[in-house]
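Exercise: predict the fold of this chain.
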Amino acid sequence: MRILVTHPWSDPSASWDIALEHLPGWELQVCREDEILQHLDGVDVLVPMPNVVSREIIGAGSFGLIQQYGVGLERVDVEAATDAGVWVARLPAGLTGNADSVAELAVAQILMAVRRMDEARAAVARGWWQPISGSLIGSTVAIVGLGSIGTALAQRLSGFGCRMIGVRAHPEAGGPGSVEKVVGPAELPAVLAEADVVICSAMASPETRHLFGATTFAACKPGAVFINVARGVMVDQDALLAALDSGQLSWAGLDVFQSEPLPQQHALADHPRVIATPHIGGLTRSMLARSAELFGQNVLRWQRGEPPLWAVNHPPRPRPAPIPPRRTSASAETPS
């Protein structure tokens, strides 16, 4: 019984062994994205992480479950998986602590931008120039996407004395009590015009690709701060750069990018008005530990022949799950 994870940790202190803590008897292999096809033999469960799982990969393997160790499945060919009898499941951000961890990072990026922390740190090195910054007190914050991450953000920002407006696909679902009002996507331009801080925390989909582009940034309040902790494909990076260089946006905090890793020479990597982090929003020890528990439970559920929880498909003819080895009792002692 074997799991293949297609994403080695770059942090030497991290180990994928945590994923086996609730899966006795299972083995785990780790490979790079370009090595997936060479490591599929005997694999029962595939963990894609940020990598592409194509029709070719699905057809080359015999695995019956693609289980994400998080939420994102936009690079998995779900239609091909369904056709091949492979379940595809995620772990909800609200249950793993992912949403809380991402929200923490978003708040940190907001504060770094609003309080001009990069400039303040540089000021000390240059001889104590004191930059005067903004504050969240009395500001207006737009949270675009009020799912698990957006809700966790609103909860954390409620103590900062700011006014919050939520934008979501289904505004009738409402939001946390700390959010003053919740509107639909049609009202996004009007919300942007009054927001000092704009946070993208929505779910990526074909409909939200480049949701933030030249027209959207032009609708922002001049000098606004833009934060993206959702997915890189939701932002037109060329339009973002233009908005930063023109001063339409004062700062951007980015934890996600269209292409990851972000090329070292990319203009966003060392832009003086960009706080860039390498997609670490959800990568906390508490999130990894809770995810290991839910991951193990869902794999064992699938192994028992039950549909996995949080599946995004329902293959009509699922591939068989591995059968656990039969336990043998110790042989009886022969009487003398």
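Check your answer against the key: The domain at 98-276 is CATH 3.40.50.720 (Rossmann fold).
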